[in-house]
Amino acid sequence: MPRVVDALATIRSSRFDLPLTYDAQAFELQIGDVVRVPLGSREVLAYVVTAPYDAPADPKRKAVLERLDVPRAFDDEGLHLARFVAEYYICTLGEALSAVVLAGALPRTIDSFVRTVAQPNPQRYPSVPARLVRLIWEELGDGFALETLLRHPDARRAGDRGTLLRYIQTLVRSGELRRERRFVQPKTTAYRVRVLFAGKASIRGGKAQALVAFVREQPGVPRADALLAGFSNAVIARAVKTGAIDEREVEPAHTRSYAPLSDAAFPATAEQRAALERLDAALDARAFAELLLFGVTGSGKTYVYVEAIKRVVREGGRAIVLVPEISLTPQTARRFEAGFGDRVAVLHSALSERERFDAWQACARGEIDVLVGARSAIFAPLRNVRLCVVDEAHETSYKQETVPRYHALTVARERMRAAGGVLVLGSATPPLESYEAALRGKIELVTMRERATAQPMPSVHVVDLAKEFESGNKRIFSTTLTQALGERIARGEKTVLFVNRRGSGGFILCRSCGHVPQCPRCDVSLTAHRGEGLLRCHYCDFQMPLARKCPECGLETIREFGVGTERVVEEVGRLFPDARVVRMDSDTTTRVGDHARLLTEFGERGDVLVGTQMVAKGLDFPTVTLAGVVAADVGLHIPDFRAAERSFDLIAQVCGRSGRAQAGEAIVQTYSPTHPAIVYAAKHDYDGFARGDLAQRRELRYPPFSLLVYLGVISRSRKTALDVSGRYAELLRGANAGEVLGPAPYPIARVNNEWRFRLAVKTRTPKPLRAAIRGELVPLARADRETRLVINVNP
Ligand SMILES: [Zn+2]
Ligand SMILES: [Zn+2]
Questions:
Q1: Which run of H or of E encompasses 271?
Q2: What is the distance between the alpha carbons of residues 368 and 382, in angstroms, rounded to a whole number?
Q3: Exposure string for 463-501, b = 16+ CB within 10 A, e = fewer
Q4: CA 639, CA 637: separation in Å to the nearest integer?
Q5: What are phi and psi of 518, to 5 degrees?
Q6: Average pLDDT value over all residues in the chain
Q7: What is the distance between the alpha carbons of residues 247 and 237, in angstroms, rounded to a whole number?
Q8: What pLDDT digit, counting tens, does each position of 518-560 carry?
Q9: DSSP secondary-structure letter at 613?
Q10: What is the SS3 assignment for 123?
Q11: Closest-lying ligand to the alpha carbon of 748?
Q12: What does the alpha-carbon distance between residue 788 and residue 782 come to, in Å, rounded to a whole number?
């Protein structure tokens, strides 16, 4: 019988989302190989998704044309995870593989054209200008690439591009040109790192001089670290060009010429040793186990991870450490490099696509023992992974919000389950699903209650803003916060202020006529950004000038409501004109390295750091003795069953920033001082909060007491979105696939002129629901050109 393989086209198209079987006699193929195959009337690249197997001869079956000489796009484990993601999150295998295969892994397709006749037939295409005809038939060499043609200086006039594309198509159809397709294969190179040394030449400019000083302090520092430290590509390139900086490519082993951070600052605490013993026991058992390492902020969880990984590596195993993107700083890298030298690879946002690909390949070749990275690192082609750590397991960034909408924690669990390894989740505020599993004894709970520095948790004061308002204080800072802030500034201690919203305020309201400017494309009010003099939409980035007069009634009675980062910065400046304030939000951190640069600025000379979510995370400054939540209510009342959990996490994380090395304090301002998320966060009582919230979820059958699937229907027409989602709801109700709620509009019903309705389906038996969605809804949605279906499992 002939040997065959199944191969899946790499192109993302709903028409080709199933693997096809091809004869594979001529090649030695394995899973993950990239091959060229016929598909319909064309040739495409495809991934091999089965090992070769025997099948009865079939004259209609086509054969693999070529095995490309490129590294495998994935290994058996990667394929297994992709199949799992496709099944669990209800997407196609191709969509799931797009998370597994790195962008750099696929060859580029280049089309070129060869003339088969000496002259074109001029009568046949009279509308093409003579100069463009000349270009193709006289000026370009034979076998010219499409790119070369479109970029030619003589083809730059308006409309040329379209004309040429149509002309080429006609010529190919008439046979006057022959299309030749070529695949340019990605280069496989050793995993190299670009490092910087100080050069001989001098250079002008403050930023460039700071770069030279930075490099002189740490000769051999990786270029990526300089980017993370806030130096732009342009500055580095200029310094290299002028000779002020020397850039070399070296193997990763040679990047450690500058001193890594040492972890030996504190001896291990009793709790750390106990946690390590539990982890050792789990590793001894050589079977799948899941541990929840529940440790307060500053309890030294990283030490436990590093020691456990050391043991795994000593025994010939490997480990993956997932951290939130925002924690992927040089500091994180150093802690792991200190333990594992050149056998560690850190995948962070400052790496180029090529560098990521090289690191990935180094994993596949077995040169890496420890991989540290954000959520996608869970798919890395690392063999014999015996330990997987998910740090800050409650972080929302582990869930991917585009297809495939996977959660890295769920994928990590499947990976360790299949491999018989150990999964460790670390958090100060564990995801409620995991905590519930721990309470039931389904996973192991390891608790660390003390900070490694032996500092107590900060004392938290809750300020009732309603009372503050009654007593006549209409400002955004309560008397308590103002006073505490003043004391810190006077003593030279640092303060972190957390605000939910960027910009200067919330929405704008005219006090005379009640007009609230709305985004014309979305169902939200616009946010004021006074610094830029703009009103902006935070969903589609629509912008309009921020006028002083009301566009409706023309009076100057416009007022801002709500509080944003810009406004808080202003208020600090008004109260304490000498204070040095640093603002950190997505407006001030648009480039790689901005985040680290602002933190350095704050660490070296800032008094107050004002920011959104990002200030709540991983920030560790010993001299911060005050943390403030300016308005804890935003986010508390949004219609999402996780709203309370998110608020609790945030408040707890913000408070945890204070008093890491000396006694600290935290102040939470709110209009809802009795809300459980606030009451428990102020008492540092995660357990109390978790039990209360879980009881509510049990009653309402929300996860972890059910599987929840959101099915969104999106359309340019409101009526179509509503009608179609209504039909889907009936269909699912008919299929008895669970409790179907809706259709209801999304919390924001219209974004970028598209209407969005959604069904929520809760079930305890996910199988029939998945089958109904895959078997009935997805085919319907594919056939419908007016709507898009968005499937989000465990949102
Ligand atoms: Zn908008
Ligand atoms: Zn008005």
A1: helix 270-284
A2: 8
A3: bebeebeeeeeeebbbebbbebbeebbeeebbbbbbbbb
A4: 6
A5: -110, 155
A6: 87
A7: 9
A8: 888 888 888 888 888 888 888 888 898 888 888 888 888 888 7
A9: G
A10: helix
A11: 1
A12: 8
Tokens of 590: 């648009």
What is the radius of gyration, based on Cα positions, of the chain? Answer: 29
Separation CA 750–CA 219 (nearest Å): 53
Instruction: Please write down the long-range contacts of 240-245, taking CB distance under 8 Å and 24 or more positions apart.
Output: 242/201, 242/203, 243/199, 243/200, 243/201, 244/198, 244/199, 244/201, 244/202, 244/203, 244/208, 244/212, 245/196, 245/197, 245/198, 245/199, 245/211, 245/212, 245/215
Residue 172 and residue 281: Cα distance in Å, rounded? 68
Residue where the block lists tokens 């009865």? 56
Beta bridge pairs of residue 23: 4, 63
Q: CA 408 to CA 376: how far, in whole Å?
A: 7
pTM for this prediction? 0.84
Distance 461 CA to ligand 2 centre (A): 39
- Which ligand is the nearest neighbour of the Cα of 520? 1
Angle (deg, nearest 10), helices 643-656 and 686-700: 170
What burial letters (b/e) apply to 555-573, b meaning 16+ CB within 10 Å?
eeebebebbbbbbbbbbbe
- pLDDT for res 330: 67
Query: Measuring CA to CA, which residue among 93, 137, 131 is closest to residue 114?
Result: 137
Highest mean pLDDT among 42-56, 167-181, 315-329, 409-423 belongs to 409-423
Question: 527 C-alpha vs ligand 1 centroid, how far in Å?
Answer: 10
Task: Find the ligand nearest to 511 CA.
Answer: 2
Task: Return the amino acid letter for 670.
Answer: T
What pairing do the DSSP bridges indicate for beta strands 144-145 and 108-115?
antiparallel
Distance 744 CA to ligand 1 centre (A): 20
Q: How many CA atoms lie within 13 A of 138 on its CB side?
A: 7
The environment of the single-atom ion ligand 1, i.e. residues with CB closer than 5 A, is 519, 521-522, 537, 539-540, 542
For ligand 2, a single-atom ion, the residues with CB < 5 A are: 510, 512-513, 515, 550, 552-553
What confidence score (pLDDT) does residue 284 get? 96
Distance, CA 600 to ligand 2 centroid (Å)?
44
Tell me the CA–centroid distance for residue 552 and ligand 2, in Å. Answer: 5
Asked whether the beta carbons of 283 and 308 are under 8 A apart, the reply is yes
Tens of pLDDT along 82-99? 999 999 999 999 999 999
HEC profile for 162-193? HHHHHHHHHHHHHCCEEEEEEEECCCCCCCCE
pLDDT band at 23 (very low <50, low <70, confident <90, very high): very high
Instruction: Give the residue carrying structure tokens 């009337």.
Output: 41
Higher-scoring residue by pLDDT: 230, 702: 702
**Ligand 2: centre distance to CA 512 (Å):** 5
Q: Which residue has the tokens 């193709």?
A: 136
Asked if 537 and 527 count as a contact pair (C-beta separation under 8 A), the reply is yes
Taking CA atoms, 746 is separated from 507, 643, 712, in Å, by 20, 15, 8
Contact indicator for 502, 562 with CB cutoff of 8 Å: no
pLDDT confidence band for 254 (50 / 70 / 90): very low
What CA–CA distance (Å, rounded) separates 709 from 730?
16
